[in-house]
Specification:
It contains 5 helices and no strands. By secondary structure, it is mainly α.
């Protein structure tokens, strides 16, 4: 009985906490479809999940640039380069 409860709890948690890669793909899809504001929010959500991962900062920079938020875009780009200089 206890095992079933643990598996049920893990299943619920897995549904509530999407993997960063899946969330990054979702943000990229939003960006590609011109939903820059939504994409920026989703990229930020990925950053909140994995703050030391460069790709969402690059995506956030692109979304901010597309929204003409140049200073915010440059900051996101700087953070991406700092995390992954190559």
């Amino acid at each position: 009985m206890r095992t079933i409860a643990v598996f049920a709890m893990l299943g619920l948690l897995a549904g509530c906490l999407p993997a960063p890669h899946a969330a990054l793909n979702h943000a990229s899809d939003l960006y590609q479809n011109g939903h820059y504001d939504e994409a920026a929010r989703e990229y930020q959500r990925v950053i909140d999940m994995r703050p030391s991962w460069a790709p969402p900062y690059l995506g956030l920079g692109n979304a901010r640039w597309a929204m003409n938020e140049r200073a915010e875009a440059v900051e996101a780009y700087k953070r991406a380069v700092a995390l992954s200089p190559e």
